[in-house]
Structure prediction request, 599 residues.
Amino acid sequence: MGLILCATRGGEASYRTQQAAIALAKEQGDEIIFLYIIDLSFLNKSAAPIVVNIENELDQMGRFFLLMAKERATEQGVEVRTITRKGIVQEEIINAVLDEGATQVVLGRPAGIQSAFQTSSLETFAAEIERETKAITILV
Amino acid sequence: MVNSITILSAPLVSAVNPSSMDGIVVFISVGIFIFVFLTISFHLLHETTAALLGAVTVLLVTYIGGHYNPDLRILTFDDAMGVVDWNVIFLIMGMMILMSILDETNVFKWLAFRLYSVAKGNAWAIAVSLILLTGITSAFLNDVTAILMLVPLSIQMASAIGLNPMVIVIPEVLASNIGGAATLIGDPPSTIVGSHIGISFTDYLVNMAPVAIICMIALLVINWFQYRKDYGDAKRKVSKTLTDQLASDAQISNYVTLRKALVISLLTFIGFFVADIFGQMPVGVVALSGATFLIVWVKPDIHHMLRQVNWTTLLFFIGLFIVVGGMEATGAIEWLASQVILLAGNSLDRAAVLITWVAGISSGIVANIPFTIAALPVADYLTANIPGGTESRIIYWALILGADLGGNATYLGSAPNIVAVGLLSQAGIRLSFSRFARDGVPVTVLTLIIATIYLLIRY
Prediction:
């Protein structure tokens, strides 16, 4: 039984990726790990007063999105776990693949202007994941 | 002359002696300001780094350059300390401490979830509640804090009912900038201008809250026309698991601290209202007193507490005050102000309209905090030199409204916008410049028109 790691966020664009990972897991009888990464780098250039525990806020938001993803997978009879990590997205995906021993990684291609990633950088990143972890990386 | 404005409690004005320095030193001071302004506006450096770099350059030019050529003296260290508005610094610091303790209690998320529950899945009702809550929170705490506390939960609620989070988050951001204009502590331009002219919390509220409320209503009307279809399409039924998760994240975390924090916050706000009675006590003293009493009562780990104070924000303001103080000392701002008077034809109304729209348009394109600090001495000059300006203070109100409302046009305009874009990206949603402007520009234009009419009728 393999282990599919699906890095996800909460936007509509991510539902398509989650569904692809669920379908793949169902077909192969694999387990899925949905991963949400808290990346606070967007605060790095602002002098705005950040007195809120923003890491905690994003952790709760991430867990909520993971719960939504888990609901979808469970409804379709797929075994699923969820994890959150904090750091730079690219680094943390690779670290999570290594730590969890994932055999496949599912990432979503940019879908329209709402996507957080660009196609070219995602393809380069997919190649890097395969090189660093030996896990097969699928862009959907 | 700038020094003639003796009625103002204005550190920028009183501490600087605009001597006969001219020529190259004017260009140096303006060059330093433009460098800081552009690096902040286009995020080429961290905002605090840019402001500190500018301040240090002003001082180094003064001491090292001035050693070889006395004409290069811009601001001495003592002058630099004099141009910093410490009332603003202590107000921000005090409010940071109050807010960080209040945030630990989770009270605003609790309130947001109560509103969500009352709305019973009605997307329009949820959106209106969250938009108003953000606007009100921004007025009484601070706009960035309101966004950081409420937007993550708003994104979750929108996702739960199948609504694009942008439909709620963008109006929340716009509401935070509008709500921030309502009080002296809501938005940095309000705090900077309000403190500079030494106005009381109550006087500020009486003058600015009415126009902020009208603008908030206008925002809700525009929002309805823009997104009524999205609200109609949202689903009303949310799974129990998701609702339970939302409820769990929105629980009050510490009732004892909450009670203490609410009591002190209430006393602090009463203090803001009555501070004028006690020898025009500055609001910075009130905020710092509230924060100190809360620390004494709640007894948090003081090291942890002081780490919560965002020193980068305070240093950012200190740096900016010094950079603009340098420019004022060289006489550059006085020259600029005299050109504005020529353009306004010595008419107070025309000058107010000019300031409102120049501040509004500029704040949509570049950062509104450095703009406001730089525009203040210009406002001083106009107020002192155009008949009727001192009595009505219309130029200052115009500057506040222009800078606060103009910040809504693009996501570069003010800090809450940038923070909200970052929060949305954490939810996998890229809010582009044009997408934000599509909502922001109409609201900005409408609210600036409302502000202009309000200023012309009321003053």
Summary: Chain A has one domain: 3-139. The first strand of chain A starts at residue 3 and ends at 7. The CA atoms of residues 26 and 77 of chain A lie 8 Å apart.
